[in-house]
Amino acid sequence: MWKLLFFFIFLICTSCQRTGHTDNSVALCATDEYLSFPIDEETRLPNRVLTFDYKGKNYLSFLNNWEELLFYEVETGRLINKVRYNTKGGRNNVHNILSYMVVDFDNIYISSEVGNEVFLTDSTANIKRSFSYLKSSEGNPLLQSLYSPVVVKGNIYFHQGINLGLGRNAMKYSPIGVLVDTLSGKANVTPLNYPDLYTNEELVYCTHGNRNWFCFDGNRLVFSYDILDSLITLDTDLSAMQSFNAKSKYVKKVTSESNANWDLNKVLKETCESPSYGNIMYDKYRQVYYRFVYPEVELDQSEDFLSIFREGRKQFSILILDKELSIIGETLFPVYTYNSNLAFVNEKGLYLSVSHYKRTDFDENILRFQRIDLVDIDF
Question: Over 90: is that where the pLDDT of 24 sits?
Answer without folding.
Answer: no
